[in-house]
Amino acid sequence: MTTTAVTVGHVERIPIHFDDLDAMGVVHNARFAVLLERALSGYWAPRGHSYQNGAPTSSDVFHAVREFSISYLSPIRGTGEVDVHFWADRFAGSSAVYRFRFLSTDHRTVHAEGHRSIVKLDPRTLRPTPWSPEALEIAAGLLAPTTSEKVA
Q1: Which pLDDT tens digit goes with each residue over 21-34?
Q2: What pLDDT score was predicted for residue 149?
Q3: Beta bridge pairs of residue 95
Q4: CA distances from 118 to 75, 91, 96, 148 (A)
Q5: pTM for the whole thing?
Q6: CB-based burial, 51-63: b 16+ in 10 Å, e otherwise
Q7: What pLDDT does 133 receive?
Q8: Taking a C-beta distance cutoff of 8 angstroms, is the pair 27, 20 a contact?
Q9: Dmax (CA) of the chain
Q10: CA pair distance 56, 34, nearest whole angstrom
Q11: Contact 88/94 with Cβ under 8 angstroms?
């Protein structure tokens, strides 16, 4: 078996808890969106973009998911840990598109893969608004090399 290469983006290891499982003992399909959110939060929070005391630490935290698509390839069985590999195909204007893969911790199995599109919103108007220069700088480290010109 070969190991899945990780050449762009970030890998965040997250725990799988008993309540993430369905009656068959595998991660329930609906939990993948939450697990992805936890992985993305694990990346952004130490970089100053999170919620603390019920309030966003940055205006860039206020965004909505526009689209979420996932293909399930191999079940995640039981509790333990899983690696979530994610990167940005686009991070510009008021939107971003993440690509992601759920990997076994040895990276030999791809459990699921997909994409997630988000739009940053103005909290008062709920209309799209541009990412801050700080968010664009942080996101630059997630962009695939062929899309780096889209950061500006």
Answers
A1: 999 999 999 999 99
A2: 43
A3: 92, 119
A4: 26, 9, 5, 18
A5: 0.91
A6: eeeeeeebbbbeb
A7: 97
A8: yes
A9: 51
A10: 19
A11: no
CB 38 within 8 A of CB 103: no
The whole-angstrom separation of Cα 18 and Cα 93 is 39
- Nearest 10 degrees: CA dihedral of 41, 116, 121, 93? 110
Task: Give CA–CA dist 59/24, Å, rounded.
Answer: 40
How much of the chain, in percent, has pLDDT values that exceed 90? 88
Contacts 24+ apart (CB under 8 A), 133-137: 134/48, 134/58, 134/60, 135/49, 135/58, 135/60, 135/91, 136/91, 136/92
